[in-house]
Amino acid sequence: MTLSPQQVIDRIEAQTPGVRSSPNRGDHDLNPGMKTSPDLTEAAVLVALVNRAAGITVLFTQRTDHLLTHAGQISFPGGHMETGDGSPQETALRETEEEVGLHRRHVEIIGRLDEYVTRTGFSITPVVGIVTPPFDISPDAHEVEEVFEVPLAFLLDPANHERHSREFEGRKREFYAMPYMDYYIWGATAGMLINLYEVLKR
Questions:
Q1: What is the sign of the dihedral through the CA atoms of 143, 145, 147 and 153?
Q2: Would you tell me the crossing angle of helices 187-200 and 5-13 to the nearest 10 degrees?
Q3: Residues in the chain with pLDDT < 50?
Q4: CA distance 149 to 61
Q5: Which of 59, 57, 60 is nearest to 72 (CA)?
Q6: 5-15+22-200: which CATH architecture?
Q7: Residue 138 per-residue DSSP state
Q8: Helix (H, G, I), strand (E, B) or coil at 66
Q9: Alpha-carbon 150 to chain mean position
Q10: Is the CA virtual torsion 165, 186, 38, 114 positive or negative?
């Protein structure tokens, strides 16, 4: 599926404000009965759609291997909300600036996806923005191993939407995955991409 930036904007903005297509979207979608923490930590990520001449791409980070949580995993830039943020949008923009050095002046926020609840106790708001090149990046070497982009058309192709499973704490856990070249995009990040696909395919 190949979309223009305006088509993406129109489909994101066409969502009814405040009405979510899946109020309880999260890791439990593929794992019925899975319990989540009653005390969720609010977080936000930036789903950065880069308006390249050859087509829209999506910006990702690969976390460094020495981090205590989610080491080496691929994610959107983002993190937990701080008291002074005021909104998920502010959290996503602040964290993106801190993690990859992408200044907010390059980002046009166009909407949000469904909140995503993780097994590890986070409630994540994916904030969607169009990023206009040229821009500079300066990744935080402590947190970010690499910043890379994947064509949106690849991520919106159902042929690339896989379901994988692993044993965790003695139980089989299923999750979405979208392997791209040497990058293994999975878990919450892939789950949010499925949400993006459902919005943009309309």
A1: negative
A2: 90
A3: 18
A4: 9
A5: 60
A6: Alpha-Beta Complex (3.90)
A7: -
A8: coil
A9: 12
A10: negative
114-162, pLDDT tens digit by residue? 999 988 888 999 999 999 999 999 999 888 999 999 999 999 999 999 9
Residues 187 and 182: their CA atoms lie apart, in Å, by 16
> Which distant-in-sequence residues (6+ apart) come within 8 Å of 43 by Cβ?
78, 79, 80, 81, 91, 122, 123, 124, 125
Cβ neighbours of 113 (radius 10 Å): 25
Given this model, what pLDDT does residue 1 score?
83
Helix (H, G, I), strand (E, B) or coil at 189: helix
Cβ partners under 8 Å of residue 20, min gap 6: 114, 115
The conformation of residue 53, written as its DSSP 8-state character, comes to T
Domain range list for the chain: 5-15+22-200
pTM, entire model: 0.91
CB of 187 closer than 8 Å to CB of 175? yes
Amino acid code (one letter) for 14: A
